[in-house]
Amino acid sequence: MNHQMHFLGSPGQVADEIRAFDWSATSLGPIEGWPPALLTTLRQVLATRQPMCFWWGDDLLQFHNDAYLPILAERVSSALGQPFREYWSDVWVGVEPFVTRAMAGEGTWMENLPLRILRNGEVQESYWSFSYSPLYDDQGVIAGILNVVTETTNAVLDRKALQEAYQEAQRHLTEREQHEEELKLLNRELAHRMKNTLAMVQSIVTQSLRTATSIPDAAATIGARIQTLAKAQDVLTGMSVTAAEITTIAKVAVAPHVDDARRIEINGPRVFLSAQQALGLSLAIHELATNATKYGALSRPEGRVSIRWDKQADDRFTFDWQETGGPLVTEPTRRGFGSRLTERIVSDLFQGQAGLRFEPTGVAFSLNGKLHSEGDFEH
What we know:
One of its GO terms (molecular function) is kinase activity. Residues 159-196 form a coiled coil. The protein has ten helices and twelve strands. By secondary structure, it is of the alpha+beta class. The protein folds into two domains: 3-151, PAS domain (Beta-Lactamase), CATH 3.30.450; 170-377, Histidine kinase-like ATPase, C-terminal domain (Heat Shock Protein 90, 2-Layer Sandwich). The longest helix has 59 residues, at 153-211. The model is unreliable at 374-379 (pLDDT under 50).
C-alpha cells in the first residue's frame, strides 16, 4: 500500500469501500491525486465514533464514517462518492439554506430539524440535530462541508407522545374537577330541596290537621297532597336537578282528576321553573283540580278547565286557571289551607300576586310574578 493509502487508518467497512471505489470516474479523480486537506479531513472523520459525513469538491461528493452507516439505512451501499444535491434530493429543500451558509464560511447549528426523508420505499417524517461547518483546501478556499449529525426522530416523537399524554391527563383532571364541582352543586341542591320539601310537608300536615273535621278526612287530604309533592319531585328528577318544564308539571298535577283529556286545555310556551317554584305551583294546581272535581267544573260531565301561562320580558310570568260549565259558584265563607296555599304561598314563590276569584261562570285563579333566573336555581 503506498503512502496515499495511509489516511485510511484502522481497518473498517467505510475504509474498505473507499479503497475499492473507482474514484477516477468522479470529479475528484484517483486517490493518488487528492489534496492533503482532503486526506487530513478524511483521517479525522474515519477516526471518530460520532456519526459524521462530509461533502467535498465542486460536486460536493459524499464521504462518511462507520458510525454514520445506520443513518443511511437502505442507502448504505450507494451513498459513497455521490453528489450531495442529487443523491439527497428528498431533503435538499430543507437543508439547502444551511449548505449555502456553510459554503459562505458560516458554521450553522440546527436542533430537531424536521425532514421528510425517503426510507423503506416511502417518505417518512424524521428529525435531526446537526452542524454544518465549512471545510478548506490547501489554499484556504472553502472546498466542502462537514456534517456532525444525530438523528433525533425517536426522541422527538417520544417527547410529542409524552406531551400528548400529559395534555390528555390534564384534560382528564380538568374533567374530574368539573365533575366534582357538579357533584358538589348536585349535593347542595339536593340538600336544599330536601329542606324545602320537608318544610312543605310539615306545613301540609300541620295545616291539614288544623282544618280537618275528622282523622280519616285529614289522612286522605294529607296523603293526596304529599303524593302530589312526590310526583312533582319525580318530574324534577327526570328532567333536571334545578329546573322543570311547566307543561309536564301541569299535566302530572291534573292527571288524577281527568277522566277525559278533552275536558282540560293546557296551553303555553316552553317555560322552565326552579325546583321550588315547580313544587309550589304543582301543589296549587293539585288543590285547584281537587276542588274542581269535588265542587267545580270537573264535578259535571260538561265542565271544562283552561290552564294557560305566558312569559314576558325580564322573566315576568303569568298563569291562569279558568273553570267553565260547572255548577253555580259562590265564594266560601271560610278559606282553608288549600286556598291559602294556592294564593299566598305561590305568590311568595313567584315574588308576585296570586288570587282566587269565584265568578258565576266558574272558579278562576291568576298568578302574576317572576321566574327565578338560572342563577337562582343554585343554592
